[in-house]
Request: fold
Amino acid sequence: MNKYIPEKINKLTEYVPNLRICEVVLDANESPYDLPDDLKEEICNRIKTTKVNRYPDSFASSLIKAYAENYNIRSANIIAGNGSDELISLIITGFVSPSDTIITADPDFSMYNFYASMVGADVNIYEKRANDCTDIEEITREINEKKARLFIFSNPCNPTGKSYDRDAILKMAQNTDALIIVDEAYEEFSEKDNSLIKCCDKYDNLIVLRTLSKAYGLAGIRLGFAVANDEIIRALYKIKSPYNTDSISQLFGEIVLSKPEIMKANVKNIIAEKIRVQNELSQIFEKTNLQVNDTDTNFLYVSNNDKEKSEIINDFLLSKSIKIRILGSSLRITIGKPEENDRLISAMKEICSRL
Reply:
């Protein structure tokens, strides 16, 4: 054991993405749609004039302006990051001390616990109920009883795909002294309009995280945003690295945000396919213990109490070069293109007929 490696690092479980090569990739909640060729050509032409020998704009001014205009919020309430992951890390390491308590939920995005463990904070995990719901009043009481410094959760939730009501979250922010961090990575896919980004400037303890990785199809670029009141944004600028988003990423984001109709069309197609796939899988699962849940995201969440059965399904899909995500005894399936979804449905019919 290397004595120079801190114990808090030794205790961590490394996040290892599934690097297995498959023809149908439905495990990472990415958009199945790449950028159109004409948009890529426009980006390439702009890259030719980009002075990559110079440092990028540390404030990502043009990018943030484009994002602010798209969502009708103030640029002063936004900071850009190298993916929302960087911003999660920045917020937790900057605003939390080892003596503090952080509350997370389970199931939820695993990286919240990872970053909390990095600062040595006391992490308390709120176990969701059998229907994967969070009782906002209950979690508010827990925050106050444990004098938690911070509560972070995804809305809509990854992996369950469920949304929590905006007014309930605002009530929680009003009735606690904790920082409330809401990760809205999948909000563009939801028809419930529970986003809090237009509320942030009215609260001194509310931060909303957004990303271009999902609905905008820029997972390979790594661009995310935090939206909060002016004071929190200024504090985040103090602790971020000077040039955390590079010139090319800023350029990609700015141009893609200037064409929001592309994102909206892709989201419409994905939601339509999600409904189709959900209906098909529901019929296939009728004689099994599997249940496809309604989601407000670009993926489906399949509940199952039989871990062995889920592993059999997952292994069979991999044998058909189809990759999904297995989470304990449950399955998370990203919505792909129609032809990819057809292959999934066909494979599911075959394996479920044997179960």
The mean pLDDT is 94. Residues 212 and 218 are 6 Å apart (CA to CA). The radius of gyration is 21 Å.
